[in-house]
Amino acid sequence: LTLCWFFYLAIGHHIPIYTQCLILVISNKESAAQQKGLLIFGVVLSVLLQETFRFAYYKLLKKANEGLLTLSQEETMPISIRQLAYVSGLGFGFMSGAFSVVNILADSAGPGTVGIHGDSQHYFLSSAFMTMAIILLHMFWGVVFFDACEKQRWWAVGAVVISHLLVSCLTFQNPEYVASLVPTYVILFLMGVWAFYSAGGSLKNLKLCLTCKDKDLLLANHRPR
Amino acid sequence: MSTLPVVFSAFQTRKMDLLSNKWIINLIFCCFFIGVSCNSVENKIYVHLNYTIPCVRLLNATHQIGCQSSLSGDVGVLHVLESEANLDWVLKTGPNPPYMVILDSTLFTRSIMMKLKTGSSRVAGVVVVAPSSNPSEGFSPHTTCPNENSGVYSESYDPALAHCNVTVWNPLGNGLSYEEYDFPMFSLKDDNDTQAIKQCYYNHNHVVNGSSPQYPLCAMQLYSHMSAVTDTATCMRRNGINFSLNPETVCDPLGDFNVLASTRPLNYTDKGHKTGESVVIAAARLDSRSFFFDIAPGAESAASGFVTLLAAAHALRNATQEAEPNRTILYAFFQGETFDYIGSSRLVYDMENKQFPLDLDNVHSVLEIGQVGLHGESKLWVHTDPVSRRNSSVNEEVEKLIKNLNSSALNLNFSLQEPSFSQPLPPSSLQRFLRARPIPGVVIQNHNSAFTNKYYESMYDNAEYLNMSYPPNLTPEEQLEYITDAAKALTEAATIVARALYTQAGGSDPIQLQNINVDSQMVTQMLYGFLVKSNNSWFQQMVPSDFAIHLRDRPTNFYVGVTQQHSEPTFLVQYLLANLTGTTVNITQDNCQNQREGEDDKESKHIYSYMWVQGAAPPNSTERVAFCVRSTVRLSKALSPAFDLKEYTSKDYSTWTESRWKSIKGRIFLVASHELEMLTLGVGVAVLIASLMLTYIISSKADILFSSGREPTAATY
């Protein structure tokens, strides 16, 4: 059942990506300056569209979850909203990553590397790291977003949107890969910490896990999964 | 993570089908969008070559010649060769083999190519930059003794004359065209694209003081994979294998059509010996070749000869129609003579086997026009075969023919001479006739012993070499009409040939003889059309409308090509010969295109051929006035008898075939060092393993990690 949600989410993320590519197609025919302007506009629009869809999924999943509860024979919810947030974010991240990297991967499978027109030859490596950052970021944004919507903290939702915009605009710094990758990874780390806390983690739990004192706790709180 | 085991078991749910369809459709859509819009990555990596002329593989009964690349293209680091000593870098000391060597045309010599051939494990390919003007010292990639084993001079005929023992015909020949190379070789023009390639080399690969160049390096990939291997017998056997529904052909025989015309019409259904008919064959060669594929300007080796014969045929039109001489003149233009006499061997074979309306007994004598391009001197040489002249009757006829030639040259500023010593015939179609029986014949050439053609069968044998120089600032129309020095010289030669043919055919009227004059305007128009631009107004008038679109804005390519592909010069010579020796007849287009003069005429198509040509537009309109030309011009198949007899290892006939190929292209790009590639791969694998392990660890400890701040409704973790 979880798989179904996963796929629905993944498919739905196509729509904002379509618009992004469409805009790129149209913008190819314009002049360079107009192209740049159109590209920026396209990116901003795409980010806003993705976040809107994320919110729409949140609403949809909440309703579906309640509906499932009435249908199912158990008293408890089959899947928690946190798990939903994680899966939704992963779905978004997976699709976004696939779109960005599959094209580059196909072209990297030849004898040549980027650079004959003067571009940096670390293109493939930096695209790969950027894609990894984006996938993880989507996952963290999903968790934070859903949690914020649950608790009606709209400033958190705004923060997610703004950080998404920020990361997308950072890619305009390419080909200065250091200037675009380092801030992205900083944002990734910060969002990761935020997501960890909003998912219910805490420093105490982390210390418990790391020093392997958790076994007693597990045995004490053991319940069938 | 509790959902993970659920994920794997849930693959069996029935909801998968519906979702997977949606998944596939969406994937297809996204791939379409990606492909359309975001292919700029490929443009960042590769620069495709626009103009590529490859060297292809040709096979015969015993060898394969030419070049071969691997199936997925050959990649090599670029290196611009500076001198022969610089070859050391490519063959021994360079740290990044294999190399793609870029040669200037001055370095395209036998010694360099042989060294590259022996060191071919470190050579990925060779690119030759064609210069814009001919090299002054001459260049001929053909062998020194052309058509050595397919002519008449063999051990049995006269061992002293075989294998060019007396005269080496092509002393400048370095035999490069007949070697086998297992790397691709391409030719590029010396233009901006080639400059960009050299610039890439200087930016990334060039070193001074013997240090190593730094990655990334500029590299090139060439694709020219040839399907056929070993020799003709092997590839023809592989053609016939029917493993699948579409049997794949790997090679095709070379060949095309010979163009034949006669002063008296011959009935082509009446094959075999024709009693009472005595024929004088006037022969010329139509084809040429060079090292690279489909480049064969052939100005002196082919065009000079057949243009002279075309002009002579035109000059003889009136003389042979009004007062017919008692012997028929057969004008024969042979295709494929470069490759062991494909055309002439086929005609002799047909004559011997009663596949032709004439027999070898009907042939009285042969007058062949070889390379007659003149570079200032006004002298031509008459070559004969000394062995057949040992027979007194043959000798007598040959002497008569030479006397006719000399008397025709009397009143003109020309001299014809025989070589002073006993010498075999140069490579010529007459040799194939002599293989069958001793026939009196002469070959007219512009050289006494060895060829004077410095660029025999090379890409430099072009209009520039024939001294076809036009004054600057002429429009193409004016250039078409301008009479060059080359045209003037060929006019004289053609007049001699025409008058000699008239006398040889038995014509005895001296007034007719005097009136045989070749029009130099026409000669220069023909030279322009074949050697500068075939798409000109004169050619346009004389071809049918469906051929007119095939006329090109560049010189004609005289490579004979494979039998299935009809070469342009064959058609051009056919239409030209029809217009120049035929007559206009007043019949409808329908009748003309159906080869008949009237509704119930069934006989004319065996004797004549009818052509509906475009014609010219009258001065005050744009519509062309088309008309029908009736002539005796025929095409006769020029495919080596070896392929009909299926004797693919034949020593008697030409067995040349050309390999087939899938794609011919090239591109340049930068290559990264092996270390960087391994590093990228290693980092990727490490990140993958690390993330899998991290996910497993976190999911197994999820209870503990995310235990604080539990929601009351979410009771399951």
Automatic annotation (TrEMBL), chain A:
Membrane spanning stretches: 6-26, 38-57, 84-106, 127-146, 152-170, 177-197
The keyword Membrane belongs to this UniProt entry's keyword annotation: yes
Localization of this protein: Membrane
Coiled coil: none
GO annotations of cellular component type: gamma-secretase complex
InterPro entries: Aph-1 (IPR009294)
Keywords, in A-Z order: Membrane, Notch signaling pathway, Transmembrane, Transmembrane helix
A Pfam entry, by short name: Aph-1
Example GO BP: Notch signaling pathway
Lipid bilayer topology: Multi-pass membrane protein
Function, in words: Potential subunit of the gamma-secretase complex, an endoprotease complex that catalyzes the intramembrane cleavage of integral proteins such as Notch receptors.
Quaternary structure annotation from Swiss-Prot or TrEMBL: Component of the gamma-secretase complex.
Family, similarity comment: Belongs to the APH-1 family.
UniProt protein name: Gamma-secretase subunit APH-1
The organism of origin for this protein: Neolamprologus brichardi (Fairy cichlid)
Taxonomic classification: Eukaryota, Metazoa, Chordata, Craniata, Vertebrata
Automatic annotation (TrEMBL), chain B:
Pfam families (alphabetical): Ncstrn_small, Nicastrin
Location, primary (coarse class): membrane
Listed InterPro entries: Ncstrn_small, Nicastrin
Localization: Membrane
Record's GO cellular component terms: plasma membrane
Keywords of this entry: Glycoprotein, Membrane, Notch signaling pathway, Signal, Transmembrane, Transmembrane helix
Superkingdom assignment: Eukaryota
Ranges annotated as spanning the membrane: 678-698
Residues annotated as domain Nicastrin small lobe: 54-228
Any one of the GO BP annotations: Notch signaling pathway
Topology in the lipid bilayer: Single-pass type I membrane protein
Similarity comment text for this entry: Belongs to the nicastrin family.
Protein name as annotated: Nicastrin
Organism ancestry: Eukaryota, Metazoa, Chordata, Craniata, Vertebrata
